[in-house]
Structure formats: structure tokens, C-alpha cells
Amino acid sequence: MQDDYLSASTFLSTLLAHYDPFNAQEEQDLKEIQRRLQSGEDLWTRKNRSAHLTASCWIVSPDRTHVLMGYHRLYDAWSWLGGHADGNHDLLSVALQEAREESGLTDIRPVTTDLFSVEILCVNGHEKHGEYVPSHLHLNLTYLLEADPEKPLRVKEDEQSDLAWFPFRDAPGASSEAWFRDRIYAKLNAKLEREVFHVPQS
Asked: In DSSP terms, which residues pair with 60 in a beta bridge?
């Protein structure tokens, strides 16, 4: 088990070492995630109460005109999909599994297997299943996925109250969480514009 952890952490460290940060947020968060990986602490499970690895996804339509978001019960806001690694060392598979579970869609595909985004997310203390979860950090890796907006959606009712496809440029503004809207979702769209629509980074 320890060998598996070390191997996975070494692989992730190598992956991150070759990742090109998009902006100052990614540059600084990348350094901190790398530092924590090198410290030897277990970041792969929620046993680490202060910080652990998660995987999120920005799900776009095949023509890149729409983005899928869910209305998250805990945060009371429209947000991306994703979840905890919980011991799974393949974070792309975590993103895909969470996307399928939270949307009901079965045919969700990576646009690319490359890492799309890196960020550290702050989670305030909250109640979950009758137990208090202390404030902690999500060391998050994001993948760009695609799915067909014509396929039926199924809400994962213990986590969400709704699912919807938003026009690409409207998706960030759908979120009522200012930091996510301005720092994360706007960044994901800016990266998508640069890499798909070839709009130069300002």
C-alpha cells in the first residue's frame, strides 16, 4: 500500500512538473500542491482532514458552445462536477466517474487526457450525513470533458437539485460564488477560448 502511494505521488509530481501554469493562481497553487506531495503526507484520501486530492471537470458540448453545470446543494450554487480521489490514483478516471454519477450521462469523453487546470479550493466546515466536516483544502486537478447536450440528464439528488447546459460564455456568470465565478470558471473558459477558439491570452 505504501509503495502504491509513493508511486502514485511520484507520478503526479512528474505530471505537475511538466504542467504549464496559465496564470499566477495556477503558478502558486501548483507549487503548494507539489510541496505537499513531496512532504510525504497522505493526500489521496479524506483521512487527511486538512487537505486531500480531488478531481473536477469542465464538461462542454462537442461544438464547444455549451457547458454543463449542476446546482450543488451544499454550496447553494451552480458549479462544475467532480469529487474526491478517495484512494483512486487515476484522477482522470475520478473526474469521469464523478461526471457520470452526477449527471446520469454515460457517454462522457475526455477532450484530451492532458490536465486542463490546477487549483487549490477552500471548503468551509459543514455538516455531512449528520457529521461535522472541518474546514479543509481541496488540491484539485481539472479535466476537459465533452458530452452530448441532447442526452437526458439525471440529478444526483443527495448532492444536487438541478442540472443544466449553459451557453459557453454564460456559464461562469451562472455561479453565485464570486471567487469560483471570477477565478476558476472564467479561467476555464479563457483556457478553452485560447486552446479551441485560439483567442490570445490577454
From this structure: 67, 146
Contacts by residues 14-22 (CB-CB < 8 Å, ≥ 24 positions apart): 15/115, 16/115, 16/118, 19/115, 19/118, 21/118, 22/117, 22/187, 22/190, 22/191, 22/201
d(CA 112, CA 103) in angstroms, rounded, equals 20
Within the chain, how many helices (H) and strands (E) appear? 6, 10
pTM: 0.93
How much of the chain exceeds pLDDT 70, in percent? 94
Rounded (10°) angle between helices 2-17 and 24-39? 150
∠ CA 27-113-176, nearest 5°, is 55
Q: What is the pLDDT of residue 67?
A: 98
C-alpha cell recorded at residue 140: 484539485
CATH of domain 2-197: 3.90.79.10
Domain boundaries, the chain: 2-197
